[in-house]
Amino acid sequence: MANPRILVFAGSIRAGSLNQKLAMAVVKELALLDAAVMHVSLADYPMPIYDGDLEAQSGPPENAQKLQRLMGEHHGIFIASPEYNAGVTPLLKNTIDWVSRCKVPPNPYKDRVFAIGGASPGGLGAYRGLMMLRQSLTLGLGATVLPEQIAVSRASDAFGDNGALKDETQAKQLRSLLARLLDEASRYAR
Ligand SMILES: Cc1cc2nc3c(=O)[nH]c(=O)nc-3n(C[C@H](O)[C@H](O)[C@H](O)COP(=O)(O)O)c2cc1C
Question: Separation of 27 CA from ligand 1 center, angstroms?
Answer without folding.
Answer: 22
